[in-house]
Amino acid sequence: GENVGLHLPTLSVQEGDNSIINCAYSNSASDYFIWYKQESGKGPQFIIDIRSNMDKRQGQRVTVLLNKTVKHLSLQIAATQPGDSAVYFCAENGGGSNDYKLSFGAGTTVTVRA
Amino acid sequence: DAGVIQSPRHEVTEMGQEVTLRCKPISGHDYLFWYRQTMMRGLELLIYFNNNVPIDDSGMPEDRFSAKMPNASFSTLKIQPSEPRDSAVYFCASSLSYSNNEKLFFGSGTQLSVL
After folding, report:
1. B108 and A41 in contact by Cβ < 8 A?
2. Rounded CA separation A88/A80 (Å)
């Protein structure tokens, strides 16, 4: 079946550097994508979202890029801080009649080195 | 707002026992979701409610699982009888209006261990 997947399961980044987390999706019908952050012992927390009619969206220290041609989504974190250490999930809505169901990727564990 | 509240935070039980997980959504949210998270399968949607009515339970693994939402401020997920393979973190989430792609707000989860 179609699903959302991540290119890399782990990412180690030096404090202050920029982080890039990648996500590949295969459901071309998806029109809404979300990034979540999950810290240890907590539930996923919304970071940023993007609709398929956009290529880029910026938030506070985060930017999401969407490339529909190659079905690729990325999350960029500027000036990574220790508090950014967490597991990051991308999710897609599946589009069409499945827009009420979010499919989550496997997650990328980000570790920030001091 | 206190956010989505789940209880208990941790549950350890023996195979065959009944397990009940509880959730209080954010006040005013009309959608409630139950997710299960495991290392092998990641986050899976089990069931979701709209205005206390179950809309889609196709993610519920089998008849041992059941969920109810008797009112707008409370939902339960019950497993009877429980099995070791049910061990996972169960999350409840709520949103204001999912059809408009409103954000999901997750609780802190219930860590279930079935021995």
Report:
1. yes
2. 14
